[in-house]
Amino acid sequence: MNFELSHIPERTPKPRESGLTMVMDKGLSLRQAEDTISASGHLIDIVKLGFGTSLVSNDLQAKIKLYHEHGIDVYLGGTLFEAFLVRGQLEDYRKLLDKLGLTTLEVSDGSINLDHGLKCELINDLAKDYKVLSEVGSKEAGIIIHPNKWKSMMQAELAAGSWKVIAEARESGNVGIYRPNGSAHVSLINKILAAVPKDKILWEAPIKAQQVWFINLLGAEVNLGNIGPAEVIPLETLRLGVRGDTFFNYLPEGVNVNEVIARTKKKTQ
């Protein structure tokens, strides 16, 4: 913090297990990554090199090295994992991770139909050598997964060795845990939270209204992902209650704003 302000929620320092901010890098240049770190690297926990962008991005290894040097974990998008898997190139994928110096990966099945038992076997095997995030939910609009299935899949993937389970929303924020208009599937999310520890879930929330909704529900220490590089600091102000949408979240209970303003007015007269 650059200065002191009372009634600000406590934020766990990095490296942390809760209050995570995962940023979606969809092909930033090395210079843009440097600028992102200069502006908000102290607030970023994880960077996902989205979908298959790492295949065609310039300065890939240099950018990964840069993120690592600033205490930011990096992993390749789950879609790329699926692309290797369906081509029978899982061992090539492992070799790629090792070549790039990556210790974290995502196991997902948002684009392919993958037997869940096999998915858990893959998580269990990969978790022996890597930190695994696994994603639950389809990337296809209109595909509904029953809440009980969401719960059981998340529980099974955590038991198999996942560090965190990711609740799917895509970069558009209109599938998975959200309705087509971007609003939250409230009953689904509440049922998930009744069965899965909140600190073990990383909620994809690319849209400000979604970030506000989760902060109001779970507080400043909620894990949020698919955040745009330019949205990291705005998100942190939402977490801390110094932006209009969450302004009253952490003020003392029963505070009367009108009375405070009236007393201030008296002092200035």
Give a verbal description of the structure.
By secondary structure, this protein is of the alpha/beta class. The chain has one domain (21-268): Alpha-Beta Barrel (TIM Barrel). The protein contains 10 helices and 8 strands. It has an 8-stranded parallel β-sheet. α1 (30-40) runs parallel beside α2 (60-69), α5 packs parallel to α6 and α6 runs parallel beside α7. The model has no long low-confidence stretch (mean pLDDT 93).
Topology (SSEs and partners):
Layout: E1 21-25, H1 30-40, E2 46-49, H2 60-69, E3 73-76, H3 78-86, H4 90-100, E4 104-107, H5 116-126, E5 131-136, H6 147-160, E6 164-167, H7 186-195, E7 201-204, H8 208-218, E8 224-227, H9 232-240, H10 257-268
Parallel strand pairs: 1-2, 1-8, 2-3, 4-5, 5-6, 6-7, 7-8
Helix pairs in contact: 1-2, 5-6, 6-7
Radius of gyration over alpha carbons?
20 Å
**SS-derived structural category:** alpha/beta
Question: What's the CATH architecture name?
Answer: Alpha-Beta Barrel
The CATH topology assignment is TIM Barrel
The neighbouring-strand order within the major sheet is 3-2-1-8-7-6-5-4
The residue-averaged pLDDT reads 93
> How many domains is the backbone divided into?
1
Relative strand content? 5-15%
Say how many strands there are: 8
Q: Runs with pLDDT <50, length 5+?
A: none
CATH superfamily: Aldolase class I
Order of helices and strands: EHEHEHHEHEHEHEHEHH
**Count of discrete alpha- or pi-helical segments spanning 4 or more residues:** 10
Give the biggest beta sheet: 8 strands, parallel
DSSP helix fraction: 40-55%
Overall CATH class: Alpha Beta
Shape: globular
| N- and C-termini, Cα separation | 33 Å
